[in-house]
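Hi everyone,

Forwarding the result from last night's run.
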Amino acid sequence: MLKRFFITCSGADKNIIYSCSNGEQNKYAGIGATVFFTALLAWIAASYALYTVFDNVYTATFFGLVWGLLIFNLDRFIVSTIRKRDKFGSELLQATPRIILAVIIAIVISKPLEIKIFEKEINTVLLKEKNDMALANKKQVASFFKSDLDKNKAQTDSLKAEIIKKEKEVNALYGTYITEAEGTKGTMKLGKGPVYKEKRDKHDAALKELEALRKTNTDKIAANDKQAITLQADLDKKIADTQPVIDGFDGLMARINALNKLPFLPSLFIMLLFLAIETSPIIAKLLSPKGEYDFKLEDTEAAVKTNLAQNNHQRELLRTTDAGIYDDVYGEIRNDRELYNYKKKKAIEMLEMQADKFAEKQKGVM
């Protein structure tokens, strides 16, 4: 049962292969088994690759099965269409396009399995890249809000500087009228005279201005602080909204790029392994001598070609003979006077009918 299934996978002609020896059947069963297991690996590899895209087991498995069947059909076609010839060079030339196709298939199959085999190492590379992307994203978002934050901070600092400047002015006026009262500066007279009162009034007016300025600027600073909090919240929200995009940087292309950043040699060996598996049926057919199946297949094809050539030759003879007979028949008819007179009579009747019709038409116009 299993042997028959693998022979079917090899693409061999059942009517011919089952008439061959047991050894010849085992050879083609081995070729069919290689084709089957290559397709099975293709199914597994494609399912994993598609799972990284769809994140759904059933969808990935279904499309992976379609891909596996496609690879199975291609491999079966490649193996079954290679014919053994008398010269190895002719066989190699015939198999070259198929080998190239097998190499492409092997590379496509091996890549998803490489991603799975080196999954831990790839995750490490992706983690580093995600961290770098997160830092770059924070810098980019911060630079986007930087002008507004800097402007807000500059306004707050300016308002605070105005208060400090006014406080220094009030303190200076305070010192002026105190020293005037003490007689240490100004008029150098002890006591609260007219000059003291003037300086005291100037200080009190400045103090009122300071209180008004402090109230006004404090309100503005509070508004600026509130705006700064809003800007910072918007910045944090922007970073939080873009973080899932960075966290989702885990698709097929990202993993392939991460795989390419790992050492090349292990990946090369895995690809060569699948290349050997994929091309092994073709190489086996190229290196193996002509077997019983090949001779019988060649005999069957030769018989079909001979029969086709005979049929074509007979059709050509039939066509040329039949054409010659009709040439002779029409040659004899051409000299028959009775037939000539009959066709002449009919031609005269036709001309008379045309003349009558033309005359009637002219009368109707007039």
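The radius of gyration is 50 Å.

Cheers,
N.
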